User: What shape does this take?
Amino acid sequence: MLNGEEAPPKTRSEASAASLAAARRVHAACERFEADWKARPRPRVEDYLGAPDDPARPLLFEELAALEIELRRDRGEHPTVGEYLDRFPAHAEVVARLFHIVHRAEDLGLTEVWPPPTRLTDPSEPRASSSSSAPPALGERFGKYDLIAELARGGMGVVYKARDTALNRDVAIKMILSGAMATEAERERFRREAALAAKLEHPNVVPIYEVGEQDGFLYFSMRLVEGGSLASHMDAYRDDPLAAAGLLEVLARAVQYANEQGFIHCDLKPSNILLDRDGAPQITDFGLARQAEQPSALSVSGAVMGTPSYMAPEQASGDRQSIAATTDVHGLGAILYELLAGRPPFRMTTMMETVMQAIYCDPLPPRELRPEVPRELEYICLKCLEKVPKDRYPTAAALGDELGRFLQGDAVAATGPLQKLRRWARREPEIVARLSGLGLVSMLTELNYRAFSPHPDPVAHRCVQLVLAIWAVLTLLFQQLHRRGWQSDSLRGFWILGDMACLTLLLWIMRDLDTPLLVGYPLMIAASGLWFREGLVWLTTELAIAGYATLYILAGIDWGPGAPIWSRPNALPYANVYVACLALTGYVVARMVKRIRTISRYYESRRQA
Assistant: This one.
């Protein structure tokens, strides 16, 4: 106020700007807190909350406290509700809600419930007006529904078990989680999920009863399936491949029905398959579903939509024009793979590496992880997971028919040798690249020795072929160790050391520092970037320079009679340039790896569940 006059009320645009400014503040505070947590022993939430009268303080506290609890649990600590009530008595309700989420997640065995993710939204995206920004608590009345228990919570929605007082029956209610903080795009996506699911009437698709809005929260009610998700019943199928095949046949028929209605689910995974009390599967969560003949206006072109561990290559690469019924066939194959192998088909330490694996690599055959898996069922599973959509089953119905033949003991369409070879090449890119390169060098060496060399040296020729054979054996050895779980950077470091030693030995045997094989050093530096480890790139660079320097010294000592060869005019005049190029190659590859990993960590911490 100025001169006793009240400030004019805020317009809707001003209120929206204030809300966005608060969201940016919360995001910046969480980023700073997480960075400080990694950099120093123990930052305090209290130091990041601002002034006591700050209107953004409650939202800051909720996000920062959730983040701190998550980070402490990652360190193996066990924060308690009493501890946080003592620290923050003024936020007792928020503390109780946060710890209710933690305990509920543990009770249900859910991995995607906690932590509630901090979302980074587009500052230019308008927010929907609403009367509330927090979902209702258990025991409260939500319209005509009494909320009984929280079943699941993700980045966009929360699902409750509720009692429909009008019809006197238990239902499941899914409501948009962010309330007033939800963007129009989020609300439209939520409405779209309800609209798509409501059009499907199938015994193995969870039906929608009602769609509406209450107290600013969009919601829809659906059949309550109390058997839990398939993700919590995986062990029941892991030792029974026939039961897994029967379950997938039922799911394939349901997916075929949805596809025939013009919808592609796009997010088939165990947590989206519910089991009723009789064990019958029910498909749910059509949040990413799209109409087959209609591009989605809610997804940015090129955006990665789905769950990386189960994602088809066309989804992982953002090629939404290629999404079709075969995308759901891939999702069904991913579910079957986890039932058979005990793990998802694609799973790495970071989201970026998982997405890259989904695009370029084939999973290990299930029989290599569990030898008791029937070979025919493995064929069916891997055919579903082919990288090229046309190589998969063309429809979910075709997959269902194939599973039916397997269950009846009839012959199934076996994978051809060309597909097996192609799948192996994608699954083992490191070993394929090395063995192909070594085989090519060996053949060319033999050709040159027998046809083009004016003065063939049989001793040097045999030594070269022997080193190439040793190199191939070392490659197979390291790859076997890698596949048996020795996936540490130390093993990769020894692998790189073996490669560099073999290449350097080859060049020493050939006694020629002008050979085109010198390109092997920079090629190995570039190839080391495929492991996405900056330290391994620098190790490869240092070993390449050390190997070349060793050859250079040996050339002066042993290769030149009389004076050192590199002291003669016009002999090896560019060795220093070559070393500088190796160092520059290592720098460029290491910087690219660092940037990619930084971007990956950022978006992984911001992605919605």
User: Anything to note?
Assistant: The chain is about 50% helix and 10% strand.
